[in-house]
Design a protein that fits this description.
The complex is a heterodimer of chains A (about 325) and B (about 325). Chain A is an alpha/beta fold and about 325 residues long. Chain A is about 45% helix and about 10% strand. In chain A, the strands form two sheets. Chain A has a six-stranded parallel sheet, with helices on both faces. In chain A, strands 5-6 form a two-stranded antiparallel ribbon. In chain A, helix 1 packs across helix 2 and helix 1 runs parallel beside helix 12.
Chain lengths: ~325, ~325
């Protein structure tokens, strides 16, 4: 029955088109927001620390596009991408980085401490590996209440140097927490090359698999592949088990904005990685028929960021007397004297 | 009213809250079949099942972080840290997680976790099993620090802690677990607010002693002796909570006695007694008729040998001598 076959083919092609466009939009938002933040810092319009996730978009987008809105994500100090991919509004994120009251954390968190429950974004934990038990515990707690949401914990390769990494994976296995652990192997734990510490990419995945958890390794320059693997792992996790996904990505920028990266790696290594592995370029090349649509998305995202920046930056300045609000639920902000 | 030992009172409070609210879960090492190394969870797993009373691996950090995550979705976990000395392994999740999440999420998140931990000396457990570290936690914004001194308070305060929407560090006294018993009052509402909660253990006119935890009973015995032997009349304030800090109760008492001593088992140097002393010096100086006296442990680990331990942790004799000195100043 050749007709049916060709129809099936067309449907799956249509799915690929839809998925490709969604993934593309998600990745371009992350890329452009990160580059925009970098410019705002250089122009002195933003202050503090900033850990760029340029080059790591496929992990955030590929996984988050496999999730439901009510699934819960925990993240890291390098977490803008995870937040945006999970649906945290661009304006709320930028306002937070401006330190304004209209930021998603009211200007109290900044770049490394974003929280947005309405988007299912539990938040960043800027302590390496610290977010792992949050996502696993939240997913487990939700399951205890009969909800079928899952947790996703994003962390870097450096997390495997923490005891909490092993502790959490073990506990998640013991108690069947429906949590997907996503290890973004970006080649560096700050200045320490991953290869020197753990060996070649895939070591994290192998370590975890050896302990009995379902674990996959995927190339983070191919977002369609990341998404496909993520979808299958998410389905598995939703049945009530933890799983692990290692995504090889590139840390295109320095560890943080003013990190003197040239002391420990070649001047062009980030740029070179991106030239060969850019997940956005790879997606464009693998779906050449969509170039017009992709261009359109580029334009929309650029407009969105301009608009949201203006709106975010003109937001409300925090009042000093708000500094003591929500420390606890006692007489908030009142000294007991 | 039921007469219970301190450890039994803790268990009764856990049992009452497990029964009252299915969001309450108890997590910790050996809390299940074994019933806790100090019996505080004995029988609870049998009664409430292994989905609500859970034995954990020896992973304090992950347990604490897990509880924080579960609390974020509305659970009310009670974590048992077997000895307070082990809490350092969970410190990051308590201080960087539980304590800050309400604040740094701008009120989006609430982390109602209770971290229970038996503390202090007197049981011959030695240096890594006898510390009294509540001052650390009282220094961290976002944490409630509870320190019951008797069975009745252990019961009521633990029920309050589990119902609190804030993370609570609940410091129990393992010395008192089997040595102290009292009537617990099941009818006291656990929904009472935590503020203004210090308890006047003994009324007196000559001097005020502010204390908490295990030292409350020690001070009470000293006060009885001093009254009989020297006619000195001590007023004793049991703070119950280091945060919220009931400075009103301290101020009222100092206003009537004009003298203040602070007694705690924690190391004296940089201990919470310094905060009380400083606060009174700052706000009640005109009421004072003598120097503020601090009595705490020596700046040394808690040694195993009894004679050494008694040279580190304040004994009745030492407290008596210092209070007599203050009374006659």
């Amino acid at each position: 029955m050749p007709d049916t076959e060709s129809r099936t083919l067309r449907v799956s092609e249509l799915d690929t088109v839809r998925t490709g466009l969604r993934l593309y939009r998600s990745m371009v938002i992350i890329r452009e927001v990160e580059l925009h933040i970098e410019r705002l810092h250089r122009a002195g319009r933003m202050a503090g620390s900033f850990h760029s996730s340029v080059g790591q978009e496929a992990a955030a987008s590929g996984v988050c596009e496999a999730l439901r809105p009510d699934d819960l994500v925990s993240s890291t100090h390098r977490g803008h991408g995870h937040a945006l991919a999970k649906g945290v509004p661009v304006g709320g994120l930028l306002a937070e980085l401006f330190g304004l009251a209209n930021g998603v954390s009211g200007g109290r968190g900044g770049s490394m401490h974003l929280h947005h429950l309405d988007s299912g974004f539990l938040g960043q934990n800027a302590i390496v590996a610290g977010g792992m038990p949050w996502a696993a515990g939240a997913a487990w707690g939700a399951r205890q209440q009969g909800r079928d949401i899952i947790g996703v914990s994003f962390f870097g390769d450096g997390a495997a140097s923490q005891g909490l990494f092993y502790e959490t994976l073990r506990l998640a296995t013991l108690w069947n927490s429906p949590c997907l652990f996503v290890c973004e192997n970006n080649g560096f734990a700050h200045s320490m090359p991953v290869e020197r510490l753990f060996g070649s990419p895939g070591t994290h995945c192998r370590l975890v698999a050896e302990q009995g958890m379902k674990a996959e390794l995927v190339d983070g320059s191919d977002v369609l592949k990341v998404h496909e693997v993520a979808c299958s792992l998410v389905d598995y996790v939703r049945t009530g088990y933890p799983a692990f996904l290692e995504v090889t990505v590139g840390r295109v920028r320095a560890h943080s904005l003013n990190d003197p990266e040239y002391e420990y790696r070649d001047r062009d290594s980030g740029k070179n990685w991106l030239e060969e592995n850019d997940p956005i370029d790879t997606l464009r090349k693998s779906l050449p028929d969509l170039s017009k649509e992709f261009d359109q998305i580029d334009l929309e995202v650029s407009t969105l960021i301009s608009r949201e920046t203006i709106q975010a930056e003109s937001g409300e300045i925090n009042q000093a007397n708000d500094a003591l609000r929500d420390v606890d639920t006692l007489d908030s902000g009142v000294r007991h004297d | 009213m039921t007469e219970l030992k301190y450890a039994e009172a803790v268990r009764a409070a856990l049992r009452a809250e497990l029964a009252a609210d299915e969001r309450v879960v108890v997590l910790g090492q050996e809390v299940g079949a074994l019933g806790g190394v100090f019996t505080t969870t004995k029988g609870l797993q049998r009664e409430f099942g292994s989905e609500r009373v859970l034995d954990t691996p020896i992973s304090e950090g992950a347990i604490a972080g897990w509880a924080v995550g579960a609390a974020m979705v509305g659970m009310r976990p009670v974590v048992e840290i077997m000895f307070m000395d082990f809490v350092m392994l969970a410190m990051d999740q308590i201080v960087n997680g539980a304590a800050k999440l309400r604040y740094m999420s701008n009120g989006q998140l609430s982390v109602p976790v209770v971290f229970r931990m038996p503390a202090g000396g007197g049981t011959r457990h030695g240096p890594q099993h006898s510390q009294q570290l509540e001052s650390w936690f009282a220094h961290v914004p976002g944490l409630i620090v509870a320190m019951p001194s008797c069975a009745a308070d252990a019961y009521t305060m633990l029920r309050q802690a589990i119902r609190s929407d804030d993370p609570v560090v609940f410091v129990e006294s393992k010395y008192l677990y089997f040595r102290e018993s009292g009537e617990i009052d099941e009818s006291v509402s656990p929904d009472l607010p935590l503020t203004q909660t210090a308890r006047v253990v003994r009324e007196g006119t000559d001097l005020t002693v502010v204390t908490a935890g295990r030292m409350v009973q020690r001070v009470a015995e000293v006060a009885r002796d001093l009254h009989e032997s020297d006619g000195i009349d001590c007023e004793i304030i049991d703070l119950r909570y280091l945060w919220p800090l009931d400075t009103g109760a301290v101020a009222r008492s100092v206003a009537s006695t004009s003298k203040l001593a602070v007694v705690h088992e924690a190391v004296q140097t940089f201990g919470w007694g310094a905060e009380i002393a400083s606060w009174v010096a700052e706000y009640c100086l005109a009421d004072l008729d003598g120097p503020i006296v601090r009595i705490g442990s020596q700046r040394a680990p808690v040694p195993f040998a009894e004679v050494l331990e008694n040279a580190v942790i304040p004994t009745e004799a030492l407290i008596k001598e210092k209070l007599r000195e203050l009374a006659t100043y």
